[in-house]
Amino acid sequence: MDVSAVRTEVETDRPPPRKKRAWKIVRNVVLGVLGTIFAIWLVLYITKGRFLRGTFESIVGRSLEREVSVGGDFQLYFAPVDIKFVAERMRIANPAWATRPDLFSARRIETRIPPLSLLWGRRRMRWLDLIDGRLDLEWDAAHRRNTWTFSEGKGEPFEMPLIGRATVSGTTLRYLDPRMRILVDVGFETIRAGAGRINDRLRFSGTGRALDSAFTLSGSLLSPNSTVANGENKLQATARFGRDWIDVAGTLPSATQIEGVPLRVSARGWNMAELLNILGVAIPESRAYRMRARMVKQGNDYRFTRLTGRFGDSDIAGRFTVRRGDPRIHIDADLTTRSLDIVDVAPFMGYNPDLIATRGVAAASGQRGPVPRLLPDARLRVDALRRFDADVRYKVAAVRSRRVPISNIDLTLDLDRSLLTLSPLTFSMARGEVASDIVIDARQAPVRTKYDIRLAPTPIARLLAGWGVEEAGTSGTVRARAQLVGVGDTVHRSLSTANGRIAITIPAGTMWTRNAQLSELDLGTFAYKMFQRKLKEPVRINCGLIGFTVRNGVAAADPILIDTTKNVVLGRGGFSFRTEAIDLAVRADGKKFSLFSGQSPVGIGGHFAAPKLDVISPQLVARAGVGLGLALVASPVGAVLAFVDIGDAKSAACGPVLGGATAAAQRTRGGDKRDDVGRGTTSKEENGKRKKFLGIF
Fold first, then answer.
1. Beta-ladder partners of 331
2. Between 20 and 30 A from 602 (CA), which of 6, 272, 297, 405?
3. Listed residue (441, 498, 430, 440) closest to 465, CA to CA
4. Domain coordinates of the chain in residue numbers?
5. What is the pLDDT of residues 513-526, one digit of tens each?
């Protein structure tokens, strides 16, 4: 027997290797799956998947937990790769709490969807044909649920699917947010097709209401036929809110994609406060404005960069971001102004800028009656402050003003859950540096405001020069601080109830003799200096304090005390934030003998908006009467005796003065308690009776 033949036969009967057998199994499985898929595809393609209508309604309805129905033709199949979906008289119900029965309804909808987009990433439609579509998007009153989030729990923001091309007819969209008080109804015009091409323009228009502001909306989507190949879509839209307009323009990569796409935005109108009120953001009134910026939406953020524009006669530039939050909107801004007209600042203080420009501050303050008023009575919008938070930085290089020399404004604003903080707020006034911290607590009722305003040590000469006065011969400095706390929702009301202290201190320095003698009314010395032509000879100031204690809106001199080498200047009285009345008397007691000295108070009266200086005081008139009497009964020389100042004024201890201490703490240079600076009140006891001040006490 042939051994080799037997071996060959045995090898032929052996089973194939394991690898070959596994490969055959895999091949057969793949072929079976592909065959099954092809069979399903073929069945669906031939039948157009019409037999799946009931299954579609049941499965989709259960997954959405909503009623889903198709009342007409239904198609669901692969054509050849994309999923083609056609449904007539389709509707998806709204939840029971919604104000409209249907989330979506359409007479006919036809679309093609890439299959993989349903598994990974955002949903995408290659094209969409929609006839008589109705889409209703709505939040509940608590802003926790919405009609388009198909699950229990917190409602998610609405995201449109990416649509490469859209053909619509008679389609409308409605959006309602009760908490933000926003309602929008938009309709889309019909797109007509011809010669295998679609129109280049998709027009839309509608109306709406944001808070209490009604608006109209119109625009178009310029969609060239290249859109089919993922080309570009040019968007143009205009919204009008009364006297304000917003224009948006840009190029979208698809018909509905705005995420991350830079858009050109411009706004114009008569009042920025009316415009931002649409978002529930409260700002002071403004004059006519025109601005433009670049806007990019990233998630919940709307970022506006490259901002430039004007409001009134002032410029503005910078950037800001609006973040949609829950429950409040957040504003983050960094703004600058090169030149700010003082009239355009008026709204930030509660004044009407147009009235200021034409009739002055007193007319614009909103006050009426025979007495002019300066403090504004514009109310803080507490309700609006509860709807948003803010972080704002604002810088102004120069302020154009004929009377108020202000420049270099630097403001940091923080609004956190109705707590408004302006800190720091710094600026230069008449070349003096002012820093302030203002905290407005609107979390409580009534609103509580804390003021802390400080003037850094500043040469008096610089201040005088800033106000247009020659500064030569003056070397003294001045510093000041006001700390007040009041309640009320207007500047006038908060100051009318304020308590605190105001102090202006003057360290050692010199002043013009002319200015000093005029304030002292030392007629003899002034005449002597005038004849000797030495009007600018310096007079030494040892120290000075102009202090007021404020109680319930009334400021009492506490004390007014200025010590010079020749005189001690004292003041009594005060002023009222309530009535804005001023009732001050300042007099100078000489330290040296003076033959001709008025030695009587200079009265400062009137009101904040119209102060008055009364040089001829009743005391001076009385002394003149005494002098006249002496001249009649004695001799002309006797009349001079009524104006003689024996020079017995006591020098002040400068420690308490420079420390801003109250009247009770003031001392003479010898250490004795002063009895000529009052008691820090606006009333005094005379014969056991209390004298009224400003008609208040």
1. 322, 390
2. 405
3. 430
4. 50-224, 325-690
5. 555 444 444 444 44
